[in-house]
Amino acid sequence: MSPNLLLPEESATRVMRRRLLAITGTLLLVGTYLTLVITQPMGIVEGLGRGVALATFAAYLAAAVLLLLAVLPDLPVSTLTLIPVALALNIILGQFVGSVMVPLYLDSIGTVLVGFLAGRRAGAATGVLSTLIWSLFAPTVLPFAAGAALVGFLAGTAARFGALRRPYFAPVAGLVAGVLVGVVSSPVAAFVYGGTSGVGTGAVVAAFRSMGDSLLSAVTKQALISDPGDKAIVFLIAALLVYALPKRLSGSFEFIRRHRVLGQRGPK
Amino acid sequence: MEIQKNSFTGKSTVLALEIERFRYSGAESDTLQSVDLELAPGSLTVIVGDSGSGKSTLGALLAGMLPRPAADECRGSINLAGQRVQYSAQDSPRIDVAGWAKHVGLLPQEAGHYLSRIREIVAEELVFSLENEGATREQMHQQISTLSQRFSLGHLLKRDPAKLSGGQERLVALAALSVSDPSVMVLDEPLAGLDAEATVTVTEMIARLRSGGTALLVLSRTAGPWTASADAVWTLANGHLHKANGASIERNAAATAVQRSPIATDGRTLLEFSGVKLGYPKSEEPAVQGLDLQVRAGECVALAGANGSGKTTVLKAAAGLLKPSSGTIQVSAETGLLLQNPSDQLFERTVLREVTFGLPKKSAARAKVPEILAQLGLSSDADSHPYELPASARRLVALATVLVREPKILLLDEPTEALDIWGVAALRRVIDSVLAHGGAVLFSSHDQNFMDQIADRVQLMSG
Amino acid sequence: MSRSISLHPFTVLSLAVATVTITTAAGSWLLGCAVITACLVLAGWVGRLQRLVVMAVAILLPTFASLLLIHGLVATDASALIAAAGPFRVTTGGLETAMTLGLRTAVLVVVGLLCTLLIDTHQLVAAIDLSPAPPQVGYLLAASLFLLPQMAEKQRAIGQAQTLRKAGTGRGLTGWLKRVRLRAVPLVLASLQDAHDRSVHLAARGFPAAGAHTRLRAVQDSLIQRRIRWVALFCAVMGPLVILAPLWGSK
Fold this sequence. Notes:
The structure holds 3 protein chains of 3 kinds.
Chain A: H1 12-39, H2 48-71, H3 77-80, H4 82-98, H5 109-118, H6 120-134, H7 145-160, H8 169-193, H9 199-210, H10 215-244, H11 247-250, H12 254-258
Helix pairs in contact in A: 1-2, 2-6, 2-8, 4-5, 4-6, 5-6, 5-7, 5-10, 6-7, 7-8, 8-10, 9-10
Chain B: E1 4-5, E2 12-13, E3 15-23, E4 32-39, E5 44-49, H1 55-62, E6 73-80, E7 83-87, H2 97-101, E8 104-107, H3 122-126, H4 128-133, H5 137-150, H6 166-177, E9 184-188, H7 196-211, E10 215-220, E11 232-237, E12 240-243, H8 246-249, E13 269-278, E14 288-296, E15 300-304, H9 311-318, E16 326-331, E17 335-338, H10 351-356, H11 364-367, H12 369-375, H13 391-403, E18 409-413, H14 421-436, E19 440-444, H15 448-454, E20 457-460
Parallel strand pairs in B: 5-10, 5-11, 8-9, 9-10, 15-19, 15-20, 17-18, 18-19
Antiparallel strand pairs in B: 1-2, 3-4, 3-6, 6-7, 11-12, 13-14, 13-16
Chain C: H1 9-26, H2 29-45, H3 49-73, E1 81-85, E2 88-91, H4 92-118, H5 121-130, H6 135-164, H7 172-204, H8 223-250
Antiparallel strand pairs in C: 1-2
């Protein structure tokens, strides 16, 4: 028996393959979004509208799955065990917090937490996976996987560039992330479902529609009202949770050590 | 299996470890210093150390799980399977943990952590590592039948791994560990928290592994059950390893017997259960039925009984968390309950903030906090994060949060679990002081020794 | 009474995908209602009707309300006007749009939930593990489904522990914030620590598999089922194309 106690180095072709998947996924997402915004397909119910719905659904889902396949093999086991926890936190904390305050969803606390602790790839994977698994209980969330990936990705990016070094940076980063996520997710709501999934958000869209906006711009404006605030609060809560971790635990994440995510508070 | 001849002792050695020093990333002092260890096939080595002495660190080092590259500082080397792995300040090798585990298996203190907990039945859990290697179904079925024969696991194979008792969990984890037939097994507290029956089963299993030629290293708080069979007993203190002598091993037994004034026979009844039936909403079987129990002032009562006999349920009911479905519970004083798992309630960044949480500023209770911390031996940890403390101290922090409310009736769920001897001593001081102030103590336990020493009477729960 | 369906999980899923895409593309009232009825009958046959209805209604009710608000209340089309007041315009066309969109979502929800109720999760995990998907996917699915109820239980235990120490009883916004912190911090701390503790042992047991991996559990499959899957996936893609292609010219 030849014992292999040490790990081999990583091969270059695997890295290339993953990069290719990530680029394809991103292009698919951006391409679909631009096509929808530029062509502004009319009539969501009759004829081609049904095709647009199916195509948007499929393209957003496929993009999310490609991004997932690109990052998944890269993640260390310590991050993999974190993802199920994040998913459960998304749901449990979202329920607990959401049951008190009305207008926000707060369903991405776990995803943002993983982004903060383990970086943007891990965050993106968490976003996609938690949406895929949550779709077992609520199938309508499926095409929003791409938006969830973006939340995790942006959380990781923000943490990398110092959003956690001061507590007040985090909500600002959340605000920016909210704008991007809101814009990217709107076509799904508009073209696949023809509206939103909640009464409150629906009322806001209706208000914009009555002022003469197209469905897409009404949904986008609604998202720009709810998402930044929602993400700002989620980023803040996640940041406070990271601060509460003992240093030995937060220091066990290579991402935190390497990018000095926590600044003065973090491990030396 | 390759066995290396060691030129110095002439004995065959499967693993030799020489660690000059080990320090966790960000820590201010070394966790281990000049630790040398050699393990021979079929030997049993015991390392005794208090909670926080570095036992678990040593175990993780042996299992190749530490040091983490580019984080922890480690100097030294490990000889294993004919290879020499060198750790130096500049570079720690990137260890293939799975490859290493084929030679050294580690049973963690919390055996459940070893189980993947994603499989439906125990049989699947046993061959999890074989599945990852791509073994064929026939090979796996054969392994399962071999294992279940060797360790008498037949009755567990179809069970849900998430619903095993502590002892069964350890059996399954040990069996799963031995699938890859490692030449060394490191067992962290393999007998902690087991009742008498489970202790026998696990000990038997360990003996079988040893007779099969596996070198065993046991990490334990007490040498007690191992002294008779061990080849070598070491003590680990402050990161240094010493050959144990008889006196230091037996120091636990020297704990003094209780010297309390006898209870006044007219002591007021503080807690009374009469004909109580308790159950949880979702289960049909009641957890406790027809319970009659009186606890008087100055009295210390133990609840004994097998796992699942309803001990915790009784304590929760006494604390007012559960309402009886029939019968009455009379509580005539303030209660305080220490739950089994301290991590359910700790949330502050320092021990001091944790214990003072929710107490009004300038209140009498807040003024007593330093005294309580001193009583529990936690004064020097006041500024530490509760999670960074060893398990024993963490349990005491949770006890402190109960004590600041000055309960008259102290309810303790498995209080000695995870406590080292200092912790047990502190616990006894606390119990004595509650009783001396006219309070009462009701606790559940598996620890026969502790019950004999401290309890005035034992209530046996039959489930 | 509960019966079970011993189909390969992927067969169920691919049939579901085909059903949803074709129904959506056809956009017919009749077909939509027929599919939903069929799903309900099937759920009744396996004894899960009540769960299906409860879960579906919980999702669909707010969605319907939102669609009625957006399309029914402030319609912008030129069809027959039913009522109008200020900015509000209710038209037959608007209501029809809302109902059609609602039905489209309902088909997706009911078919999707029926899949969840029909498929045994352990079989699904095994099927994923035995497929060419990365080994991480099966683990993550299984671990999440296992953790959810466990962490919900943990959340209750934390609530109990905090009640015992009489913490978290404040009122108003600060009281609420304090309660959130009391509940969230121990849960996050404990579960992250637990995940961290487990990861090393998982790695030691060879996860994720570097090469080929196998499963002890066998997932029943047959040639017919494999063919059904291919046909279903083919229909899922080609069905909408065939239905919608004639409309290209008519635009």
